[in-house]
């Protein structure tokens, strides 16, 4: 998907919500365990219930891979289901890939050519030659980890070099030489609050994928205050807060309700910050 289409979808839906598909077999409603593929049945129902309120889905591959072949099939079928039924949705494979060049090349082939995801999360630790094999696929995106939402983000990501640049800033500054904001986004955790100002100082145009609202307690208002651009520039993800809003028979309805609440909040913020009228 091209950048202008993503922006258009955000504006027309009044939403920059990304629904995280993290289906945990230990948490999905009991009645679904009787289905042939419980993960797939769960994801399809969540997708149908939330698609009107979001612009993106982010399946996290760990939740599928942990179930072996059945999990991988559920992932493939979920992505296919989204593409066939909701072609305007942006699909992010949250895989946190990155390896030596020839291996990254095959990771890229797997997520873009086989799985048909629009974007993949990539870890920058191994540097340029581990990231560039994911670039140059028309309409596909790399989402590079920059400043993550977890407590461990403070272990390395804030370490400063001799010029006072922190590691997350160096990741952004270096990677901007590899690709434009038409194919490169960054992961920045909603829990980082005011740090979005510092992120915008080095990445004024890039879209940011923002996990950490909902279950991790990040503030949507703060993310928007410090991180929103004239094009919105944000995809805010919530996984558990939406998909496990209820673990009963009404799980899909409850997920739709939570997604609608976030969408309403987002529509208000998009108006307040002048992105839409
Ligand atoms: O910094 C990061 C990077 C990725 N994630 C992933 O996003 C979702 C968040 O789930 P919630 O249930 O909304 O907390 C999950 O898939 C993480 O692996 C992140 O949280 N932080």
TrEMBL record:
In terms of NCBIfam families, this protein maps to: pyrF_sub2
List, for all copies, the residue spans of the domain called Orotidine 5'-phosphate decarboxylase.
Answer: 16-255
Species in which this protein is naturally found: Muribaculum intestinale
Q: Which reaction does it catalyse?
A: orotidine 5'-phosphate + H(+) = UMP + CO2
User: Organism's domain of life?
Assistant: Bacteria
UniProt keyword list: Decarboxylase, Lyase, Pyrimidine biosynthesis
Instruction: Mention one GO molecular function.
Output: orotidine-5'-phosphate decarboxylase activity
- UniProt feature coiled coil, ranges: none
InterPro entries (UniProt xref)? Aldolase_TIM, OMPdecase_type-2, OMPdeCOase_dom, RibuloseP-bd_barrel
EC numbers, comma separated: 4.1.1.23
Q: Which gene encodes it?
A: pyrF
Q: What is this protein called?
A: Orotidine 5'-phosphate decarboxylase
UniProt similarity note? Belongs to the OMP decarboxylase family. Type 2 subfamily.
Question: Which residues does the Swiss-Prot or TrEMBL record annotate as the active site?
Answer: 96 (proton donor)
Which GO terms fall under biological process for this protein? 'de novo' pyrimidine nucleobase biosynthetic process; 'de novo' UMP biosynthetic process
Q: Which PANTHER family match?
A: OROTIDINE 5'-PHOSPHATE DECARBOXYLASE
The regions listed as transmembrane in this protein's record are: none
Primary enzyme class:
lyase
Name the pathway.
Pyrimidine metabolism; UMP biosynthesis via de novo pathway; UMP from orotate: step 2/2
